[in-house]
Amino acid sequence: MKRTIAIIACAAAMLLAGKANAQTGINFGYTPTTISTTSGNAHDTISLNGISIGINQNINLSGDLNLSVGLQARYGFAKKEVNIDLGILGTANATAEYSQFAIDIPVLLNYGFNLGKDLRLTPFVGATVSFALAGKTTWTAGASVFNALGLGTDGEDNWYDDGSNNSRFDLGATFGADLAFSQFSIYGGYNLGLLNLSTADNTTRKSAGFFVGLRYKL
User: Within 10 Å of residue 110's Cβ, how many Cβ atoms?
Assistant: First the structure.
């Protein structure tokens, strides 16, 4: 699977570098992501708000059929109240703040329909390769809580440290539509993560989320 991801990423990079005459757009999006983890009978969900900025190139294949290749930076963040299990010490209340910074490479087939008066509707479907550059959870509680958990007095858990059970790579199935007027368009869709983001035994962790945004075509 990682070989597939590498091939898609390399192909996207080559297309972005080699198609100077393709239609280029700048994207600004709202990209919330839900990360769901199941381990045995336990289930946990983190719902991240998200913002993104990126570029894409729309390359004509034939007639109204095109291939869109993009590159975007995405930042997700959330905060929620949690109960921490301290074993024989009982439980403690804490505030958990989550953050993640990732790079996405969507490779999407799209087909445009002219609606008249400069309106154009373009459904799209394809795959998105994601690579997480950083992610962490920051706990706000007493220092004794952190020490009991082995997190240290700073109360910070880095998701991708050496020895962690989190994978940086994901491959998502992506679909949606774009509605364009002149050089501007609004778009929306859904991305369903296909890979298990956990390397721990008997644990499944997957991501999913809808997205909406505004695109300006250069």
Answer: 19
Closest C-alpha among 42, 151, 50 to residue 96: 151
Tokens of 166: 């989190």
Q: List, in sequence order, the alpha helices (H) in 110-161.
A: 143-149
**Alpha-carbon span 159 to 180, nearest angstrom:** 38
Q: pLDDT tens digit string along 49-101?
A: 999 999 999 998 888 899 999 999 999 999 887 766 656 655 667 788 899 99
Distance in angstroms (rounded) separating the CA atoms of residues 39 and 33 = 20
Instruction: Give me the phi and psi of 41, to 5 degrees please.
Output: -95, 0
Residue pair 178/124 in contact (Cβ under 8 Å)? The answer is yes
Q: What is the mean pLDDT of residues 98-119?
A: 93
Burial 34-70 (b: 16+ CB within 10 A, else e): ebbbeeeeeeeebebebebebebbbbeeeeeebbbbb
